[in-house]
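=== RUN LOG ===
request id: a7f3
mode: sequence -> structure
chains: 1
length: 435
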Amino acid sequence: MKAIQVGLIGFGTVGSGVVKVLRQNADVIEKRVGRPVVLARIADLDVTTDRGVQVPAGTLTTKVGDILDDPAIDIVVELIGGHEPAKRFILQAIERKKSVVTANKALLADHGEEIFEAAFKSTVDVGFEASVGGGIPIIRSLTEGLAGNRVASIMGIMNGTSNYILTRMTNEHRDFAEILQEAKREGYAEADPSLDVDGIDAAHKLAIMVNLAYGTPVRMAEIFTEGISGLSTVDMEFAKELGLTIKLLGIAKLRDQSIEARVHPTLVPAGSPIAQVGGVYNAIHLIGDAVGDVVLYGKGAGSLPTASAVVGDIIDLARNRISGVACRVPPTSFQWEHRQLIPIRPMATIESMYYLRCMVKDQPNVLSKISGILGGHGISISSVLQKGRKAGQTVPLVILTHRSLEAAIQTALREINALPLVSEPTTLLRMEELE
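=== RESULT ===
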């Protein structure tokens, strides 16, 4: 019985996790595949550092060619990240008719179309469950489990680092910068955390899910992306008083033959399932026309949760090779010839409810002037909160609006911020009802 042979490119945190899972669960994996799955070669620039897992002698190499040029290797797993040389290695593996597994969300978000087209033309499989949500099976849910649905919306916490920081800011009433430094020391944030805290990582994941849910390619530049570094504990406290919680959400909605795709801090009801997700956990809420609401929850990162998703792809692709089939499930979910370009709506055209915190001088007629500007742009107020009156000093004035057009809000804010009685730029947060 011929074993399925796997070549691993990248022996870092996730790569070592994959080795652990393949070794520890070799017996159950063999029973599920029908044949042994053998890790034949591991390529990495560093083959001397101890990763805490034993590999057979002769397995490690510094040459990726030892994997790509070996006809006995059936499946190539790319875990080095980044655009190059990862893209080149994946395309070379596809050209050699090897199935590919990757966790590279940035590469798929930016260059997925090229990779998917190459796989389609070469009739090979590409698995990328680990690229979104760590151990959460969101990719397989979109491509298989929910394939009979029209997806109305996708919304969720897609970055564990940002959620960890926001959870602590909310619970401990401490500033972003202070908690970020602690998150770095504790290993929850990278030395350069910009991909996480600026919302870029979540946008990569959202781009992949939109592609699968709606059968359309998405350019990263089309996804409105805003991070959490500008958030203040003042807004956390006001949110709590209003029965709300701030989360960094990725949001996609199908609206009138176009798609909303945006990532930003969002106020959600404190009692909602999304609001309860704390720490490094992720949660993704989908609405399908047949299934209704589906919420997937779990660890969105980490060595073993991500390795679980990688190994799941290896098993799936191994079964296909044994059965002599490929592309049974298109990597893009939709058959290649049936995909279409659906426009991404400009942010100015979306509608939302809004939270506005104006820092104003405590004097008569302040509210009437601000509400007059909002009303002049067709924006109606649902509630107002003002605390800590100090005559002649600056105080926060919090306004919640009914659903309004983003363009109207932005125009109104420019006028509000120009008022002499407003001491600093107004804080704006969008709100979701999670209906």
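=== NOTES ===
The first helix runs from residue 13 to 24.
The radius of gyration is 24 Å.
=== END ===
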